[in-house]
């Protein structure tokens, strides 16, 4: 997945979007994008220069458990 900007900014954007869509049906492509951001963040976080984003990862994981697929 190609990402623009920092991992932190991408997580914040996905988290904001997921919260905005809370309770509404979300297109599968959007959910897949959020999952891709999440997966990429997990991989980068474990690297030697990973950003401290564990809390954002946990928050996005939590939001994704509530998402309704359209």
Structural key phrases:
mainly alpha; two-stranded parallel sheet; 3 helices
* Strand ordering within the main sheet: 1-2
Give the strand tally.
2
State the helix count: 3
Overall morphology:
elongated
Total domain count: 1
Radius of gyration: 12 Å
Q: Work out the strand percent.
A: 5-15%
The largest pleated sheet is described as:
2 strands, parallel
Query: In terms of per-residue confidence, which ranges show pLDDT below 50 for 5 or more consecutive residues?
Result: none
What is the first-to-last residue Cα distance? Answer: 23 Å
Report the structural category: mainly alpha
Helix content: 55-70%
Mean pLDDT value:
90
Helix-strand pattern, N to C? HEHHE
Describe the structure in your own words.
This protein has one domain. The chain is elongated and about 40 Å long. The protein has three helices and two strands; from the N terminus they run H-E-H-H-E. The mean pLDDT is 90. Helix content is 61%, strand content 6%. The chain has helices spanning 7-20, 28-45, 54-64, and strands spanning 25-26, 68-69. Helix 1 (7-20) runs antiparallel to helix 2 (28-45). The protein is mainly α.
Topology diagram in text:
Elements: H1 7-20, E1 25-26, H2 28-45, H3 54-64, E2 68-69
Parallel strand pairs: 1-2
Helix pairs in contact: 1-2, 1-3, 2-3
Briefly summarize what is shown.
The chain has 70 residues and is mainly α. The chain is built from three helices and two strands, in the order αβααβ.
């Amino acid at each position: 997945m190609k990402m623009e900007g920092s991992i932190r900014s991408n997580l914040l954007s996905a988290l904001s979007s997921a919260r905005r869509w809370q309770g509404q049906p979300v297109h599968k492509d959007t959910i897949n994008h959020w999952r891709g951001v999440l997966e990429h963040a997990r991989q980068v976080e474990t690297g030697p220069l990973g950003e401290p984003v564990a809390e954002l990862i946990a928050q996005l994981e939590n939001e994704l458990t509530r998402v309704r697929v359209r």
